[in-house]
Amino acid sequence: MNRGVDRQAIFLDDNDRVEFGQRLADMHRRFGTETHAYRLMCNHFHLLLHCPHGGLSAAMQHLGSVFTRHVDDRHGRVGPLLRGRFHSRHITEETHLLHACRYIHRNPLDIAGVDDVSGYRWSSHRAYLGHRRKPTWMTTEAILSAFDGDPVQFDAFVRSGLATGARAGCGRRRGQ
User: Fold this and answer.
1) H or E segment to which residue 2 belongs
2) Residue 115 sits in which domain range?
3) I want to staple 81 with a disulfide (CB 3.0 to 4.6 A). Which of 49, 54, 68, 154 is the partner?
4) What's the Rg (C-alpha) of the chain?
């Protein structure tokens, strides 16, 4: 994950969010990353990535610099957009993977007026449910396999929001 400098907005409009998706596609082609989940908020983003060939730092540095250049050029701004190096956690267990995915999909519930995870547009959750086309750079198989490939079971898991030790330390306070 990464957020804007001083928690300022990094996505100033929907065109920026679309551009970010295009940069994820580029990252997938260049670095072989696998995106299992994503969520684009106003001032931060979450990605659940796997880098089978290594190179996560190079991939994220490329994503951040190219996206910042886009925002700077498009909006006539200068200077850093992101607070610095991305924040990451190494996931080694399926339980942690599933809870990280749920956390990412539930993240917008902290926004006033958002009370349904599938109603938030800038998320991979709707692709998991088949409510929108899955981007070419995204994979759902590893997550859905834990639910016998059933998106309804996956959706129930995400909506349950049960806190467990599997994602301890991943939470945040409301309003952040």
Assistant:
1) strand 2-3
2) 94-166
3) 68
4) 16
Q: Is the pTM of this model over 0.70?
A: yes
Among 75, 105, 129, which residue terminates a domain? 75
Each residue's pLDDT tens digit, 122-156: 999 999 999 999 999 999 999 999 999 999 999 99
Alpha-carbon gap, residue 139 to 43, rounded angstroms: 25
Instruction: State CA 107 to chain mean position distance.
Output: 10
- Are 132 and 174 within 8 A, CB to CB? no
Sign of CA dihedral 123, 126, 129, 130: negative
- The residue-averaged pLDDT of 72-89 equals 94
Give how many domains the chain has, as a whole number. 2
Together in a domain, 104 and 67: no
**Placement of tokens 């995106």 in the chain:** 35
Determine the length of the chain.
176
